[in-house]
Amino acid sequence: MSRNVLAPPTQRMSHNRNYRVNVVHDDFGGSKWNCANPTTAKGYEEPDLYADDDFEEDGTDCNVEELSNGSYKLALHVPKSFYGGLIGFKGATKRRIELETQTEIYVPRQNEISTDLVIQSKERSNVCAALRKIRLLIESLRKRMRPTHFLAVALNSGGVQQRFLKLKQNILDAQLPGIDQELFISENCIHITLGVYVLLDDAERKQAISELELCRQWLVDLHTPFELNIQGLEIFNDDPSSTRVLYARIESPELQQFANKCKKHFQTTGLYAADNNDPDSIKLHMTLLNSRYTNKKPNKNESNSFDAREILKRFGDYDFGKAQCNEVHMCVCKSYCEGDDFYKTTGSLKF
């Protein structure tokens, strides 16, 4: 067996630690990755994938201001909810970014009116480098937050609503174990969700509405209003005896195209909330029952779910009829109150 395998070359690093130097075959660029003397060789340097050229079309990057003393400054709007994450424990995160990018970063205090974070440096490239790091950090922090808004198609009127109420009554009349009225969504709230977002202040809410208006461009090649066919019951998990969400299936090829393009667009804005669904496609559905709607807390040995087997057996092919969509709404999560017509909306796109 090769000596390189049994006793590979090592390199001493900090804190008296030795690390093995991986040997790469010449066919894989060995001369580029390795050197005869690993202790003196210059390490592999990965190219900067986020060079300044990548941000030439970025409006924020164009706002870098050159000061009279020759230094550069950028004022960047950041919601106050991110201040703690940007500063870090005892300022550690902020100091790290400043050290790595050779910049000075000013984060407004919580009681200040301005929400502009200021980056300043002697070099414009340093300001851009700090901007990139801050954006990536904010994106990571946003993914950990609960959604505040969702884009929806309202279905709470006409025949669909009436058919929903009829199905609800039929299920309740069947007196199935564990199925009660609390599990059902309100007839005033039935909708299709086209995306979820984290919008933390007025500026981000206004930006979201502006971005939604830009989505109008994808309606040009589609036939509006969208025709919706709502039929059949399904669940998200594989075990109908332990179900969290039961929904109605939606068939609408053109709405599907529009929803996918909207999702892809919003993912580039940094406002889109993390989800566990297909990153490229929206699952069109109309939620009917959800275990989160109930106020009952499960016992220690019980799961927060319900048994949907009998519902699927009896009503699996239930037909809610057809509907049309000529409007989408940016709604506030959990904003419905008893007696309201629908969720509170921040804005809409009509077509």
Automatic annotation (TrEMBL):
The keyword Lipoprotein does not apply. Residues 70-139 form the K Homology domain. Keywords: RNA-binding. Signal peptide: none annotated. GO terms for cellular component: nucleus. It comes from the Eukaryota. It holds the Pfam family KH_1. One of its GO terms (molecular function) is RNA binding. InterPro entries: AKAP7-like_phosphoesterase, ASCC1, Cyclic_Pdiesterase, KH-I_ASCC1, KH_dom, KH_dom_type_1, KH_dom_type_1_sf. GO terms for biological process: DNA alkylation repair; regulation of DNA-templated transcription. This is GH20290. It comes from Drosophila grimshawi.
